[in-house]
Amino acid sequence: MADLLVEQPQEITISKTFPTKPKLKSKPKTPLKTPESKYWSSFKSHQISNLISSIPSIDFSPISPHHFAAANSASLTLFSSRTLSPASTISFSDVVTSCSFRCDGSLIAASDLSGLIRVFDVKTRTPLRRLRSHARPVRFVKYPLLDKLHLVSGGDDSVVKYWDVAGESVVLDLYGHRDYVRCGDCSPTDGEMFVTGSYDHTAKLWDVRVDSKESVIEVNHGNPVEDVIFLPSGGMVATAGGNSVKIWDLIGGGKMVYSMESHNKTVTSICVGKVGKESGEEALQYRIFSVALDGYMKVFDYAKMKVTHSMRFPAPLMSIGFSLDCMTRVIGSSNGIIFAGRRKAKEDAGESKVGNFWALGNVEEPRALRPTYFRYFHRSQGEKPNEGDHLIMRQKKVKFAEHDKLLKKFRHKEALVSVLGGKNTENVVAVMEELVARRKLLKCVVNLDDEELGLLLGFLHKHSTMPRHSGLLTGLTRKVLEMRAEDIRASDALKGHIRNLKRSVEEEIRIQHSLQEIQGVISPLLRIAGRR
């Protein structure tokens, strides 16, 4: 029976090994991009610099392909939103201050400093109407979103006018403001309601059906109002003035909901745009875009009440527009440059490829490859897989460095000396952390000869004060000085390394004391600023 109980030899398996990597990874110098930052970075930048002077107004056509118009000097230039190139130009006798497309995109209205408002046909550039009633320069003109027959305008005579475009006559004169009327917007839900902003610090909501010709709601922004817009729901408005953008609840009687003060200089223009695709959940995510004289564009999520993205431009910014298809963003500056951005769309790429074949007639689409076709088995290696194909990825061969091979053979001291001879700090720290895990680091330090000890002290002198490695290297430095004190006293070369190490530690201590002094000065100032 005992002869049958023969012990079988156990099979020894070696676990899979991986290259050593530092456990304490350094933090990236730049913060990681959020999904929204990646979205705005996907807009390819393009500068339009052949304009004459400042661009005070930009407006997009509400119909596809959403071309846009820019007012500059005594002209109104129409641009293609796909090529971002000028399509046509309309000349004026004075400086153009504002422009607005009609809801069907067939007409455009523009105002100038002479107090004249002109209406043009977009395709032929034919002047159709001349509206003159303002005694001073007209600063804004706006077509209602749900009305093709009327216009709203305001100017330096402090009067808001409601026009009958077909009859070239004024329907209503509204005298509520006490200073220049600089901006206005029409309600997206009611064609007979609009809001205006003035340098008297107020924004007023008007309803043309009210017999008293007085404003329905009035809000005080606290600074001269440079721009005002309706939010998509129609129940809230946003005003811009000073260095702040404020959101007001009209349904709640004009109550301020939030004040965004992220700009350093005067906010000159704001608009609303959608973030995401043309359909789906992302299409409901609206943002407020603001530009200011500090050269920054801010993207504000008014659902979460926070700034989600910021971009810097090399000039003071005067106006901004965003297309309804979420594909084009246009910003006008004070020096005549338009900073445009457009996202690459799949349909655009398809049009660019197929567009050259339109003149050749119909082109047959290539037949899809099937396993029954001969060409299916002669595909090249660059063939892209289909949606239903099962992919088998080839495993990449892991390459080991010299110190990894030595660690694999348990030659710890040689691995440490090998990595100290290189110039990669991260590899040295990774090997030290691995030796700490194996409880062999101090034993390696004891067995180093004078030349190898000099390499270790030189490394500690250069990197022991670095914040991301100081936790490990400072403790190792103390242990090296305790364990190899006699060897250091006996060697002049090692004494030189210690003197250098002492100087670097003293310099680091001096820097830390200076930073603590600066922190003591700044902390009270931050507390005072926080109270405001």
TrEMBL record:
Q: Which GO terms describe its cellular component?
A: nucleolus
WD repeat extents: 131-173, 174-216
Q: Which compartment or compartments is the protein found in?
A: Nucleus, Nucleolus
Its keywords, alphabetically, are: Nucleus, Repeat, rRNA processing, WD repeat
The transmembrane segments are none
Q: What's an example GO BP annotation here?
A: rRNA processing
Residue stretches making up the U3 small nucleolar RNA-associated protein 15 C-terminal domain: 384-525
InterPro entries attached to this UniProt entry: U3_snoRNA-assocProt_15_C, WD40/YVTN_repeat-like_dom_sf, WD40_PAC1, WD40_repeat_dom_sf, WD40_rpt
Which Pfam families did the record assign?
A: UTP15_C, WD40
Predominant location category: nucleus
> Which parts of the sequence are annotated with region: Disordered?
17-37
Q: Which domain of life is it from?
A: Eukaryota
Q: What is this protein called?
A: U3 small nucleolar RNA-associated protein 15 C-terminal domain-containing protein
Q: What is the lineage of its organism?
A: Eukaryota, Viridiplantae, Streptophyta, Embryophyta, Tracheophyta
